[in-house]
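Assemble and predict.
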Amino acid sequence: MSDPLSKAATATEIACAVATGKVKAAAVIDAALARIKAAEPTVNAFTDIVAERARKRAAEIDAGQHIGPLSGVPFAVKNLFDIEGLPTRAGSKINVDGPTAKRDGALVRKLEAAGAILVGGLNMGEYAYDFTGENIHYGPSRNPHDPTCMTGGSSGGSGAAVAAGEVPLALGSDTNGSIRVPSSLCGLFGLKPTYGRLSRAGSFPFVDAFDHLGPLARSTEDLALSFDAMQGWDPDDPACTDRIAEPTLAGLTDGIKGLRIAIAGDYFAKGGEPEAFAAVAAVAKALGATTTVVLPQAAAARAAAYVITAIEGAQLHMARLKARPQDFDPDTRERFMAGALLPGSWYVKAQRFRRHFRANVLKVFEEVDIILAPATPRSAPKLGQAMMTIDGVELPVRANLGIYTQPISFIGLPVVAVPTRKAGAMPPGAAGAMPIGVQVIAKSYNEAAALRVSAYLEKEGVCVSAPA
Amino acid sequence: MAETKPDMAKWVEEASLAIGLPIAPEYRANVILNMERSLAIVQPLLAVELDDELTPAPVFQP
């Protein structure tokens, strides 16, 4: 059990300490704000800090209001979530000139209703079109395990804030991998729920067909605790499911008995560095998984996700691309512009293929409950690094950090990204010093199974997350 | 990939004109580069043959 005022404290530990009166929510918030002040010059995770609001909320909790399962837990959100009174940056300069949010995003409201306390908005790649965590307007978020390295993106600030121990819990968004990539590179547990499971109301969109929101944390229990608090139908998000909430926390310690676990082969067993496959092998060994399954046409799924992203993203930003091209991050501007010029027939074919791929993958899930795959093809590249060598081939970093995540979010399956390798176990810069993640993929709406596997791996000491 | 590679510079110039999206000369080279990357990445999708009855899911249910 960590000191609830320390950077190692999990959300669960803090909530327990506040609920039992061991510590005041006000003291928790003061400690978090002090840690943020100390870490920010190094990690650059935050773009907005709402200290006054957080202290007011903490005082209310200490006075007996807003009591819930997350009472007193400080959290922060990627700055594409609406925060009342602030512009919703979405990593851009342009949006700062727009209106301020009239109220908090739906998931912020849900977490606060459960007693959590928002402390700020987090850095991200511009308009979420990013796998690096770099941003020309606000500077890059830096990996707390080695600040010369990328956090991964686009939820880079979310990865940095949790890995640095500034907060135990952050929310991110994941369109093609933007929760799973920073979780992998920063050594965190990250949950990309089933498409439509959590409301996206009050968040700035990127690609409606694939946009998901979810938590990043340093323990599986924290993912489950926050996920359960955020579930539920929301008429303000047309994609949000009307299924009843399916709580995951109670079954978290049920173990892996009865779960059929397989390893993704073919596409997911090539195109990465040996460390990515070693991570999958270590997790598979701990789970006793020996069967390999193939998700047919995964390369086409990645291509289709790429095309839908490029075209939908470009269409969303067309007016801004015409009026204020000079105010975009150059790393997103020309990709958006190119997306605007792609043929419509590619888009429609990609959408038709999506149904085809979904049907074929769901057939695979008739035989298995969990599929393991790498989260990223390598651990964190250096900041500013444009090209990387994967399997002897020189490839652009931006387009390729998400090659293993894209085919999965394409059909909306739930995934827990689990961290392998104890960050800090080796000296910075040494081979193997940086963490790398594995995707634990489940069938639609079976987040509970992926979380159970994650909890088991954590209990066995195979997947551990500690703040830098 | 198509046997005859398209002239990407011309594609960018004509398509941007058609949709009314001005692309400043200093952005053009990167837009062309990204078009070339897109053309390469999309190939596995273009190679797939789909049955006529396979329509897009109007409301996507994962």
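Chain B is about 55% helix and 0% strand.
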